[in-house]
Amino acid sequence: VSRTATSVLDLDVLLQQAVELVQERFDLYYVGLFLVSGEADGAWAMLRAASGEAGRQMLEQGHRLRVEGESMIGQCITDHQSCIALDVGEEAVRFDNPLLPETHSEMALPLITREGTVGALSIQSRERRAFGDTDLAVFETLAGQLANAIANARAYDEIRVLNEQLKDENLRMSAELAVTQRLQQMLLPPEEELRQIEELDIAGFM
């Protein structure tokens, strides 16, 4: 997972590979990754990558959770700290997803960068009381690495877009200079005509 986080700069590829690796390597029921998005009706945690068939369906449906709503994902983003439900049936604040009926334990971990909490990682298991202190420490470290990778991928994407804009601007400027040069040449008399006029001085200012 760490190698993927440090080697993949395409954000969508990074997120999907990360959740699939986490789900496979830790033998989990489900892993989902949310990123915060500001909308006209408030802040939402938008599902951007998810494992398994349930994850595919949720991505197709545009699954999202309100940041300040009644869900562990929303709570961990708001509080900037991890939430754990060792038995989801006893958890008061939790979104009960019908596509994940076998979930019995869940962790929600915030993805925190220097800019703040940018999203959250959902870790779910079929077993009750599946997570202990060691698991929490491991997954919080992993969430920190993913948050840094997301920040790097976004920075790379911004640089790539800027480079494309600069290329377009350079092409536009080159085209404008070529047109300007052609217009200037059209305004001036041809060189052979100038040679026919004796004692001619030409001064130009631009």
Using only C-alpha atoms, the radius of gyration works out to 28 Å
- Between the first and last Cα atoms, what is the distance in angstroms? 59 Å
Nearest-integer average pLDDT: 87
Unreliable residue stretches: none
The spatial strand order of the largest sheet comes to: 3-2-1-6-5-4
Strand count, sense and closure of the main sheet? 6 strands, antiparallel
Helix-strand makeup class: alpha+beta
> How helix-rich are the residues, as a percent range?
40-55%
Q: Shape from CA axes?
A: rod-shaped
Number of contiguous helices: 6
- Strand percentage lies at 15-25%
User: What is the ordering of alpha helices and beta strands?
Assistant: HHEEHEHEEEHH
Quantity of strands, as a count: 6
In short:
This protein has about 210 residues and is of the alpha+beta class. It has helices at about 1-5, 10-25, 50-60, 70-80, 135-185, 190-195, and strands at about 30-40, 40-50, 65, 85, 105-115, 115-125. The longest helix is centred in the C-terminal third of the chain and has 55 residues, at about 135-185.
